[in-house]
Design goal:
Blueprint: H1 2-10, H2 34-57, H3 67-70, H4 102-109, H5 124-131, E1 150-154, H6 166-170, E2 174-178, H7 187-190, E3 196-199, E4 216-219, H8 224-235, E5 259-261, H9 264-274, H10 292-303, E6 306-310, H11 342-354, E7 359-360
Length: 364
């Protein structure tokens, strides 16, 4: 029907002026021959293609998709349905913000209706300023076209100590780590490779000995100051440390091309869809937010076809047991944390492990 309408929109006039060349007429109907219809259909198809292409992918004002949009890799084009697919509302969701279309994406997924940390509402200029300083929003490298990604999310739990899982972790297509969980000096237990490292300003490395040129550093934005910090870091300005719960990093060991900003939708999905947090907490309770670990798992669900976990087992019944596979912190510190609901997170992890949606490498 649409083609029929377009044909009549572009149908040539049957009247010709005295100066124009006569049209070839069909001997029966007296109208132009079928060739004219074929040309009209061809031109209409091209027009329709451009209209739909620009609507779906965005334009730069010249009816061509922006360079940034053209360079986006497919999130996942895998024939296998992941075991965790039913947990996701939008399996093909692109996890990183791109300066060319973040407002359009926010409107499409409702992120413009939420304040930080689950949305961009009222903070659009801050996001725009930070994104304008980044060189790329690509997910994987230009030559990485493997459609089915086998991924491991490496937590920082003390359960990783002496497990010698390093070689196993390095064997995955994608290795996701978080915060300042070090690789240096712990390679035998946690491996050497890092594909993505999720962080916030208070949790990122400052020591250049931890630099890895093959890592993509992904900023989780929890508050307005995080965006200001990133902009100041990238511009080489003095860092304003006001508004942080502890002193943030004063320099970035990663290069500009390695930095991405996580779409707040990922955090929102972790909170509301996976952990089932209430939209509004009672007045006598502090709002809870997902840990970086749960956010990292949510990211993995969107970019991987298979997800394994390591280092997510915590022993709350032994307060003196090591909290991390590095350092001297103990589990007793977790009881003082009022920002997260660790019980809800452990129940969620037990559920997806029991249902075999993920494999836990440090189950025992």
């Amino acid at each position: 029907m649409l083609i029929y309408l377009l044909i009549h929109v572009f149908e040539p006039s049957w009247e010709t002026s005295a100066s124009s060349a006569p049209l070839a007429l069909d001997p029966v109907s007296g109208r132009p021959a079928m060739k004219g219809y074929l040309v009209a259909i061809f031109l209409s198809s091209i027009f329709l293609y451009y209209v739909l292409y620009c609507i779906l992918w965005g334009t730069n004002g010249y009816w061509l998709p922006t360079e940034e949009m053209r360079n986006r890799n497919n999130v996942r084009n895998c024939f296998k349905k992941p075991a965790f697919a039913d947990l996701l509302r939008f399996p093909q969701f692109y996890p990183f913000l791109c300066k060319a279309d973040f407002l359009k994406v926010a409107a499409a997924y409702g992120t413009n209706k939420f304040l930080l940390p689950y949305g961009i509402k009222t903070y659009e200029p801050y996001f725009s300023s930070a994104l304008s300083k980044l060189q790329s929003c690509d997910l994987f490298g230009e030559f990485d076209r493997a459609p089915c990604k086998r991924c491991v999310v490496v937590g920082n739990g003390g359960v990783l100590k002496n497990k010698t899982l390093g070689a196993t972790i390095d064997s995955y297509d994608v290795v996701i780590r978080m915060n300042s969980g070090p690789v240096l000096g712990h390679e035998e237990d946690v491996g050497k490779r890092t594909t993505f490292r999720l962080f916030y300003p208070e949790s990122i490395f400052s020591d250049p000995s931890h630099y890895d040129p093959n890592t993509t550093a992904v900023l989780i934005v929890f508050k307005q100051q995080d965006l200001r910090w990133l902009t100041e870091i990238l511009l080489g300005k003095k860092i304003n440390t006001d508004g942080f719960w502890k002193k943030p990093a004063l320099k970035m060991i990663y290069k500009q091309y390695q930095i991405r900003i996580l779409d707040p939708y990922i955090i929102r999905e972790a909170a509301f869809e996976l952990l089932r947090f209430p939209r509004v907490f009672p007045k006598d309770q502090k709002p809870k937010h997902p840990t970086t670990g749960i956010i990292a798992i949510t990211l993995a669900f969107h970019i991987c076809s298979e997800v394994h976990l390591a280092g997510f087992k915590y022993n709350f019944y032994k307060p003196d047991s090591p909290l991390h596979y590095y350092g001297n912190a103990t589990m007793s510190l977790m009881k003082k944390n009022a920002y997260h609901n660790l019980t809800a997170e452990q129940l969620f992890l037990e559920d997806i492990i029991t249902r075999k949606m993920v494999i836990n490498l440090t189950q025992n």
